[in-house]
Amino acid sequence: MRTLMHTTAALLTLFSLAHTLWSGLDERAVALSFGLLVLLGELTRWSGPESREAAPLAAAGALSYALLGEDAGRATHHGALQVVTVVVAATLVGCVPHVARGQGPTADHLARRVLTAGFAAVCFQPLYNQGVFEAWSVPGSDPGSAYVLLLVALLGLTSLCDAVLAAALAHARTGWPFGPLLRDELRAMLGIGTAVCATGVVMALAVAVIGLWALPVFSLPLLLTQFAFRRYAAVRATYRQTIASLARATEVAGYTPAGHARRVAVLSLAVGRELGLSEPELTVLEYAALMHDIGQLSLVDPVPAGATAALPAAEQRRIALLGGAVVRQTGVAAAVAVVVERQADPYREQPVSACVVRAVNAYEEMVRDAGAGGPLRALEELRLGTGRDYRPEVVESLARVLARNGGVVHERMG
Fold first, then answer.
1. 10 Å Cβ neighbour count for 64?
2. Which phi-psi region, left, alpha or beta, contains residue 245 (left: φ > 0; alpha: ψ -120 to 50)?
3. Containing H/E element for 30?
4. How far apart, in whole angstroms, are the C-alpha atoms of residue 272 and residue 284?
5. Exposed/middle/buried for 251, CB within 10 Å: 0-12, 13-18, 19+?
6. Any bridge partners for residue 75, and if so which?
7. Distances (CA, A) of 261 to 253, 289, 341, 377
8. Measured between alpha carbons, how far is residue 143 from residues 64, 132, 133, 136, 198 in Å?
9. What is the pTM of this model?
10. In angstroms, how far is CA 294 from the centroid of its own chain?
11. DSSP string of 311-336?
């Protein structure tokens, strides 16, 4: 699927470039203005886990150019293929600094931008140039109202297309289930996606009335929003680093082996994605997995190798409750504390995140010193414990994750 989308984007790009070179560039001032807007958006692009759209200003500029029908009352004739050409050229130039810094995935980002802008332009430009929008207006009503309504409907289709493309590319790149990825993309449309769509449509309508001066006026709020969102993401990253530092307290004190908390967190996130948890649920799962052993700091005598899975149920529950109390004192979200303190309960009484942390922690402890055959034996022991200790669907999701990754998970947290 990923190769198909890359190939489709490449063919559309080549055809558009060839057509534009052959026929020439229409309305050069308009094309240059929108190209510079997309370029600015790409230069300010960032790679952050908190954003589903890396370059919102560029996305809004490309969408606006695709939906542009007039410039200060004068009809435009640039067509869908010129839209693709301008967007591709500006995006490629804007990607150069990011490629030089090794930030990506540039190919996926470019394919998504080309296909989304191409979809919007192909749907809008031929219909507008043929006067279809005016023909669909209800007799006796304001033609402008019908035009705006049709534009909003087309915007909804474009947003759905972009969400499907983003989810499909992420699925092909990571192997995570497509359904939850698409659900998260659709949910993200209510955030920065709504701002991108609204800005794109407003800029297209404003340019049609007052000309190109509308671009800097209406793009500034989105640019400021993007910078504010980056600051928010930086605060979230610092928050997560603080939690990771707290989680390493048990390793520094000698209660758990080095790297244990991170390994459990990485594998728990992979299992959570396999189960279809949402992004907020995955965040809680990651934090709880990082801090799942923090209750061991209350022990006078450390558990050998920090292996709590082998302790009696009552002792496991006591350590889990102490850990939940510690988490609550740190100011971390109460949902994280609930997962930590309930990880030792019978799985039928646990939230899904607690089931995941318990199963993954037990697996990591079992395979730590078990040698080459450890993973298979550990999975077999977990399956034998599904009568009371481990939720069956969690164990099977863990098995699928391990099989897909050859027994080792290297996915980036967050």
1. 27
2. alpha
3. helix 28-43
4. 11
5. middle
6. 70
7. 13, 7, 16, 22
8. 20, 12, 9, 9, 20
9. 0.76
10. 29
11. S-HHHHHHHHHHHHHHHHHHT--HHH
pLDDT in tens, 370-401: 666 678 888 888 888 888 888 999 999 999 88
Report which DSSP code applies to 74.
E
Chain center to CA of 44: 18
Radius of gyration of the chain (CA): 26
C-alpha closest to that of 208 among 318, 52, 69: 69
Residue 84 has pLDDT above 60, yes or no: yes
Q: What is the DSSP string of 339-388?
A: HHHTTTS-GGGS-HHHHHHHHHHHHHHHHTTS-TTHHHHHHHHHHHGGGT
**Residue 273 pLDDT greater than 70, yes or no:** yes
How many whole angstroms separate alpha carbon 369 and alpha carbon 256? 14
**Sequence letter at residue 117:** A
Q: Compute CA 293 distance to the chain's CA centroid, rounded to the nearest angstrom.
A: 29
* In 130-255, alpha helices (H): 132-135, 143-174, 178-188, 194-210, 214-247, 249-252
Chain centre to alpha carbon of residue 251? 31
Pair 266, 411: CB distance under 8 Å: yes
